[in-house]
Amino acid sequence: MRWDEIDSQVCSIARTLSIIGDKWTMLILRDCFLGVTRFSDFQKSLGITKHRLSDRLGKLVDAEILKKHIYDESYRRHEYKLTKKGIELYPVLMSLVSWGDKWTADKDGAPLEYIHQPCGHKINAGAACEHCDGAVSAFTVTPILGPGIMKKVKRGELVDFDSQEMYTSIKQKSN
Predict the structure, then answer these.
(1) Which one of 43, 63, 80, 123 has the fewest CB atoms closer than 10 angstroms to its CB?
(2) Where are any strands of DSSP class E within the chain?
(3) Are residues 116 and 136 in the same domain?
């Protein structure tokens, strides 16, 4: 499969990566969450070419992750703000922060710390089950086939797909 066809896979990770799976895109999103909104400020922060920045911002706008607003009518200058869809990427970025702080920080420690405004305490990104509040990790989660695959199998859209083989493979990996 070619990279430009990755969005057609029946896989939420592949479809998500087709939108945000580029280093510049992730750094643009990081900057958005840090309050950067203007093209020139993104370019200054990232050291990215105008052409590449324009392309990545355009893709994020097309995907409705960012919304483009005019802030200077006379010069037709725009700023880019996160949409609800974009804001919901925050846990993804915080998971990357948490992993990076643990495994890639230098001897001086984490570059940024994050304070939970309601209580004023430092946070460490971590996922919790919304039903029992228990920790979520690779060891506490078992993936099962969902409707996005099963409905396609029933309609015959996944011709070479063996749901039992896939389920068995997933189940063995989780044990």
Answers:
(1) 123
(2) 66-72, 77-82, 115-116, 121-122
(3) yes
128: DSSP letter: B
Model's pTM, two decimal places?
0.79
Number of structural domains found in the chain? 3
What are the distances in angstroms from CA 174 to CA 58, 100, 137, 139? 39, 25, 11, 7
pLDDT of residue 62: 97
* Same-domain pairing of 172 and 110: no
- Is the distance from CB of 82 to CB of 65 less than 8 angstroms? yes
Residue with tokens 């050291």: 47
- Four-residue CA torsion sign, 115, 120, 123, 128: negative
- Measure the CA–CA gap between 81 and 169, rounded to whole angstroms: 41
